[in-house]
Amino acid sequence: MMRFMQDQAKDKKIFDDLIKGYEEKAGKPMKDPEKLREVIIGNGYSIEQKSAACNLLLTFKSGLEIAAILETEFQHDLIYAPTGSLFVTCDNPIMTVGPDGSRLANVGLGCGSPNTEVIFPLNKRVCLVLSRGA
């Protein structure tokens, strides 16, 4: 979160737009947005979130957002293991991967990346693969 905020604050136009949006929602101007920007860009602070309720809420919100992306943007293929073979699985039931252009794959990509494929084993012989343009 800290790195994300710093990236936003480093771009003055993006930061000014965020401040403008905040001021519109709050209904009042911020006292010294430039001072806030300097604090955010610096490293003299830390961010800590300890609320289990907030963590649970964000988990459900992100799950709903990901489900909407998968439903509206992705198509599916069912891949069957050859007779006598089984799929290799891991302890994570859903894997996201994406090609990196060198015949390898990046593992753990977000669903927002255009080349992301979601691999979901249904059983030892059938695997569901979700991708854009399946």
State the shape: elongated
Written as H for each helix and E for each strand, in order along the chain, the element string is HHHHEEEEE
Number of strands: 5
| Oligomeric description of these chains | single chain
Radius of gyration: 21 Å
Mean pLDDT: 88
Classify the beta-strand content into a percent band.
15-25%
Total of DSSP H or I helical runs spanning 4+ residues: 4
- What structural category characterises the helix and strand content? alpha+beta
First-to-last CA distance: 33 Å
Overall tally of domains: 2
Strand order of the largest sheet: 1-5-4-2-3
Low-confidence stretches: none
Largest sheet: 5 strands, antiparallel
Helix content: 40-55%
How would you briefly describe this protein structure?
This protein is 41% helix and 19% strand. The protein is α+β, with helices and mostly antiparallel strands and 134 residues long. It folds into two domains: 2-41, no CATH class; 74-131, no CATH class.
Structure, described:
The chain folds into 2 domains: 2-41, no CATH class; 74-131, no CATH class. The protein is built from 4 helices and 5 strands; from the N terminus they run ααααβββββ. It has helices at residues 2-10, 12-26, 33-41, 52-73; strands spanning 75-80, 95-99, 105-107, 117-121, 126-131. A 5-stranded antiparallel beta sheet has the order 1-5-4-2-3. The radius of gyration is 21 Å and the shape is elongated.
